[in-house]
Design brief:
This protein has 71 residues and is mainly alpha-helical. Helices cover 75% and strands 0% of the residues. α2 packs antiparallel against α3. Bound molecules: zinc ion.
């Protein structure tokens, strides 16, 4: 319902914003997988999440809003 309104804009900034959520989930999943198969668990790898989120926010703020539709 609100999904269509959120994904309507195809400007670079909105596209990065659109995949920020899934990327965070994938990274959290990957960190837990590392906890299963390597000696490094969530307690050692959680800062990776901060780095990824930081990079995504940075990319979002630098991305062009050209062609942006909506607020
Ligand atoms: Zn946009």
């Amino acid at each position: 319902m609100t999904e269509t309104a959120r994904t309507k804009c195809r400007c670079p900034r909105c596209r990065i914003r659109g995949f920020t959520g899934p990327v965070i989930l994938i990274v959290i999943g990957g960190i837990f997988l590392c906890g299963e198969y390597t000696p490094y668990g969530f307690d050692t790898l959680w800062p990776v999440l901060l780095v990824i989120v930081g990079v995504l926010l940075l990319a979002q703020s630098m991305a062009s809003r050209e062609g942006h539709t909506g607020p």
